Amino acid sequence: MIPDDAPAKPDVAVVRDALGVGVAVGLSGFAFGVTSAGSGLGLLQTCVLSLLVFTGASQFALVGALAAGGNPFTAAAGAFFLGTRNAFYGLRLSQLLALPKAVRPLAAHWVIDETTAVALAQPSRRAARIGFTVTGLTLYVLWNATTLLGALGAEAIGDTAAWGLDAAGPAVFLALLAPMLTSATERATAGLAVLLGLGLLPVLPAGVPVLAAALAAPAVLWAQGRRAASTTGPTAGSTPRREKDSR
Amino acid sequence: MNVWIAIALTVAGCYLVKLVGLLVPAGVLERPLVQRLAALLPVALLAALTAQQTFSTGGGLVLDARAAGLAAAAVALVLRAPFLVVVGAAVAVTAGARALGW
């Protein structure tokens, strides 16, 4: 029965949404497997990343940084900073899903872009829990299976660049970035980060320019805060105020 | 060995930040400035990574077939294509451009 106070959404519809996202993104583990193998990582290393890191952007960033000759610490730092957004997803999910304490360490592994997006889109706690679980399970199983297939495939293919597979990594980053560019602030940050990332590449050791480019985020916020301060008087500038964020 | 060190650090770091979000009391990360920074940090990193992995080889800047592939991905995104189609377009166009000798 559908309660009067919650919008109607049958469990089947939630599962269908979750499967759609889980399958589509889960299959792109193939791109990761190929990219990782093409970057020189072994089969075991590639699979361990998908099994235990399980956050795509960080995985792509790590293998890309290692392939470019970055040292393990700067490479891991880039992957780590990309992963920090998951902490904020977890914050929203913990209120929404109200998980028992004992389940949280397990559920944490599935706190990523896609599970959060599906869970937050649901009208009730029950639907959010189903959405989170089905998306997480589908994505985890497929992401790891396709990672293995991709890594094996890359070894069979040989020269992955001839097949254009070295373009998969940046295309994944672009696809993740595009929906985030919702306002001038995001676009300014992205533009500045591109300039820093490319401009510093020839002069800094591998892996460091991307960390330096991350400074575009506080730089744009600081510039925005200053502008707010100069237009609205001396007291309003300390915390940049904006309308409710779209994300 | 270096690769395993990087993997271990990434595994530990990425798991811990996921867990922190579920365990800390709401409010700790709720300050507006922290939220704004957390939203912008991935934007900066993803933009820089996209550019670097498209326009560089080792420590040098280059313009090669990957640029055509990324342009194809951008077109696919504007057309609201699904994730896999976006990645597939980039791969196919890059391979095509290389086959044509670019």
Write the topology of this structure.
The complex is a heterodimer of chains A (247) and B (102).
Chain A: H1 11-27, H2 29-38, H3 43-53, H4 56-67, H5 72-83, H6 85-97, H7 104-107, H8 113-120, H9 125-157, H10 168-177, H11 184-199, H12 208-213, H13 216-232
Helix pairs in contact in A: 1-9, 2-3, 2-4, 2-9, 3-9, 4-5, 4-10, 6-8, 8-9, 11-13
Chain B: H1 2-23, H2 32-55, E1 56-57, E2 60-61, H3 65-78, H4 83-99
Antiparallel strand pairs in B: 1-2
Helix pairs in contact in B: 3-4
Can you offer a commentary on this structure?
The complex is a heterodimer of chains A (247) and B (102). With 247 residues, chain A is mainly α. Chain A is built from 13 helices and no strands. The longest helix of chain A is centred in the middle third of the chain and has 33 residues, at 125-157. Chain A is globular. The two termini of chain A are 32 Å apart. Chain B is mainly alpha-helical and 102 residues long. Chain B contains 4 helices and 2 strands; from the N terminus they run H-H-E-E-H-H. A two-stranded antiparallel ribbon of chain B has the order 1-2. The longest helix of chain B has 24 residues, at 32-55. Chain B is extended, with a radius of gyration of 19 Å. Chains A and B meet through helix 1, helix 3, helix 4, helix 5 and helix 6 of A and helix 1, helix 2, strand 2, helix 3 and helix 4 of B. Chain B: InterPro entries: Brnchd-chn_aa_trnsp_AzlD. Chain B: Keywords: Membrane, Transmembrane, Transmembrane helix.
